[in-house]
Amino acid sequence: VSVAGKPLNGGTVQFEMIEKGERSGKVFTSTGEVGEDGSYELITFGKPGAPAGEHRVWVTPNLLTMPDRLGVGVERMSPIPQKYMLPTTTELTYTVGDSTNVIDVEVPKK
Predict the structure, then answer these.
(1) pTM of the prediction?
(2) CA 55 – CA 86 distance, rounded (Å)
(3) For the segment 64-110, what is each residue's pLDDT rounded down to a tens digit?
(4) Taking a C-beta distance cutoff of 8 angstroms, is the pair 54, 95 a contact?
(5) ∠ CA 109-40-28, rounded to 5°
(6) Degrees to nearest 5, angle at CA 16 with 96 and 58
């Protein structure tokens, strides 16, 4: 997972299958922990991988902690726009194939 071309340092990535046809209405969500280098491996129902098909993707980053403007506390900031952190607002979609996949999830900065 990368943000504006740089690896995301930790967080979670989720792939939710966009159902069509006879599977419509069923929800298949695969989750992966994002490593310090932006890498991840998806798990679905306790097993490695994700079902083949088109997926809606969202990312929950580790929040950055920065001193606040007054210097008396801390602010928590996300390195990505909030719309990519929710399944209802994300614009990210990727297709998972039938065999082993490497999907480089790229989150735009804006």
Answers:
(1) 0.82
(2) 13
(3) 666 666 666 666 678 899 999 999 999 999 999 988 789 999 999 87
(4) yes
(5) 95
(6) 100
